Automatic annotation (TrEMBL):
It comes from Roridomyces roridus. This is F-box domain-containing protein. It comes from the Eukaryota.
Amino acid sequence: MSVQRGPLHIPELLNLTLSFVHARRDLRACALVSRAWVHPGQSRLFSSINIHLIAQCEALSAALETSSHLAAFVKTLVIRFDEDPQFFPLRRLAAVSFPHLTTLELVATTHEWMGAADVIAPLLAIPSLISVTVDPVIGTWDQLARMWDGCSANIRHLSCDLVIKSLAHVHVPPASDSVGMHKRIQLESFKSKAFPADSVSWLRDPRCPFSVRGLKALRIFFKIGQDLLDVLSPALDTITIISFVAHGARAHHLTHLRAVTQLDILNNWHAGLFHNFRMIRLMDPDVRNRILAIRFQEEEFPQVDLPVLDTELSTLHEHFQHLRVVVLSLRPPENFNTQEVELFWKDFRAYRWNLDPSIIVRCNSEVEPYIPWYTQML
């Protein structure tokens, strides 16, 4: 007696198959193939949500209200727009329960978030949150304290560009280990493009719930000064990744960061890649000899002179004895010419580099296929 069997659907195979599908239109089609494809298709489709328009926010809110099970698939939620957050329809979306949300990015390109603090409070309080970005935030000390008072205690990665009003009129207590011990949230990474005084003062304030004790990665867009080192005193032996703007001899402050092994050199807006090569050579030899990896960011690649780049790279081992990995993060200029970009990469791949064989050089860009950084960066 023969038994007729239906199609074989193994969840692992379906998930593997869908991992190669990236276009949202294709994912929607996959979710409609059959009943067995619905769950893995919806899981992939709603795992990462990016919202840029009011219509998108309203459509997502309606979908999650109609089919509440979809919210459990959302792990990353990115909201980035030009409108004032006060008038963006977030209250309806914030009322939805996201039980597995781990990454939240709130970015307003022309406004700031303090005016919508009560609206986004439920999102910041989601217990599963691990990584949070809120840019920018402008407010008083009391407003900042209220905004972050109920946030999730599981946040480990924070990016917040903040400006504190009336900073000069507020007495901030000196940094000390005892202050950090009483804070309820232990950060692993912190990123800020705000003014140094604002970020430093906020981290030092007892009303800030975030402690830098045990911090592993720091990404800042300003020079490293003594005031920042004072705040980082509980983390001087734990920070291994430092991202900063190279600023001449002031890089000697890195000597206090005793565990740093990776440098992420940011574009300083006034000079390019080769200027940064010169700046890092001014570091203290004790710091240079601890560095295993260096990443140079945001250089416009058609302007890179390959012979000069070759010379700079080939001499790195003379200054960084234990250096093993160099990553160049290159980007095309605004209104770039496709033919010019293709010509650059053709020359780049054909160039005969005179590199030290002990150093691996990788190149990332928005045009070439992405080559992952060998360890987690911010």
